[in-house]
Amino acid sequence: MLLEMKNISKFFGPVKALSGVDFSVQRASIHGLLGENGAGKSTLMNILSGTIPLSEGDIYFQDEKIDEMTTNKSKKLGIRFIHQELNLINDLKVYENLFLSEEIKNKFGFLDKKAMIEKSREIIKKLKMTINPEEIVEYLDMPQKQMIEIAKALLFDSKLIIMDEPTTALTNKEIDSLFDIMRFLKEEGVSIIYISHKMPELFSICDDYTVLRDGRFIQTGKFSDINEKMATELLVGRKLVEDELEAGEIPDIPLLKVNNFSGKTFKNISFDVKKGEIIAITGLYGDGRAEFAEALFGAYPLDEGEMYLNDKKVNMSSIKNVIASGISLVPRNRKEKGIIKDLSIQDNLSIAFFKNMHKKLFINKNEETERYNKNKELINIKADNPSDLITSLSGGNQQKVIISRWLELDSDVYILDNPTQGIDVGAKFEIYKIMHNLAAAGKSVVVFSSEFPEIWKTSHRCIVMYKGNINTILDRENLTEENIMYYATGSNLEVKND
């Protein structure tokens, strides 16, 4: 056994984040760590990496008891943590990020720039990337930044690598490359702890699993002995009844009309969304969707285009004007564009309401608390104290707070840009239900997503983009994964050009 964590408990004041958890990893294996947001996965891994101390329990690594795990000791043991939230410094070069705090020095004690660049080049080649080690990180796209984080773990003599949602920003091709690397590392004797909410990935790459729920150990075993349905039920502790989308007739009443939207990465985009309709927008990475989502909210400059809500032209000159017209956006990147790190959970939830809806001179704290409790129950936010900083919550619960923030405004149109990214299956179910309820109430929902199961469970129609343009709009009857890929890759256009 490479790693054994026995009877691990962690207290944050009166809050018990972990309670008597057992966790072990075999040598040369890939171990899936499963659990909903807030289940204790991050806390357990932070204890293992030495970021936070344990309160009770013992850690054994390579049959040696570790009396006090620290970040330096963890690194010396060969344990590396690839975090979900990227920790790169944009102003530094690629090789400088790779060797940050672990720089190579020559015999005179000076930095050996040449050696670091050469080693960086070797690991980049190993990962099948075409990145210049001397490139400034700021100019890399998100998948490249994610692969740089992975490269940092591979540079050194790692015996155990922790990967927390490593495929979030990767394309299917890049995921396949990552899995090839993981299999190679396994053959070389390296073990990997793989944390993901994507069941197909877990079943594809992992040997063993451990399930945590509410800070407690639930079950461990081999993936070959369970299926996705069984794994899901272990995660949530209950059977999930599929909340089927009502795919019946929708009144032919356009609520939102988008005419000829054009910007730097998208061109001539026109469509409408009916009252009570959920429309998905999908495609491949780099197709202009991210910028287009922001453009709908007035946060990305347009070269031309108009938008109408209830036949009234929307003033696109500012985000404030768009919000006032009745449009809300749940952004893609919650860390950079969603949460306000210095504010509490309650303040993060209430800020849109007070900025845009509150007309009184003073804030009624009782009223604010009442609204917070209502939203907390509605979307099942797992939080102990509303006055705690938003950063004290897991990523999934932060996302729930952001969604609740915009639900407060009772908008006519909700734009959701990858709303379930990095969120567990139970929370996804809750968010899908909210989307269905919004549609049932006559609201329009525009959801940007790259996951077909999500598109199928939520949307009446699906816009498929290709190179910044709308390639097709699929109705419910023709909404299949094969059709989406056909149009997302531009196969229909290539056939015509031939």
UniProtKB/TrEMBL annotation:
Keywords (A to Z) from UniProt: ATP-binding, Cell membrane, Membrane, Nucleotide-binding, Repeat, Translocase, Transport
ABC transporter domain segment(s): 3-239, 250-492
Species the sequence originates in: Sebaldella termitidis (strain ATCC 33386 / NCTC 11300)
Main location: membrane
GO molecular function terms attached to this record: ATP binding; ATP hydrolysis activity
Gene3D superfamilies linked to this entry: P-loop containing nucleotide triphosphate hydrolases
Superkingdom to which the source organism belongs: Bacteria
Pfam families: ABC_tran (PF00005)
InterPro entries assigned to the protein according to its UniProt record, in alphabetical order: AAA+_ATPase (IPR003593), ABC_carbohydrate_import_ATPase (IPR050107), ABC_transporter-like_ATP-bd (IPR003439), ABC_transporter-like_CS (IPR017871), P-loop_NTPase (IPR027417)
GO CC annotation, single: plasma membrane
Transmembrane segments: none
Bilayer disposition of the protein: Peripheral membrane protein
Protein name stated in the entry: ABC transporter related protein
Cross-referenced CDD domains: ABC_Carb_Monos_I, ABC_Carb_Monos_II
Cell compartments where the protein resides: Cell membrane
Keyword Repeat appears in the UniProt entry: yes
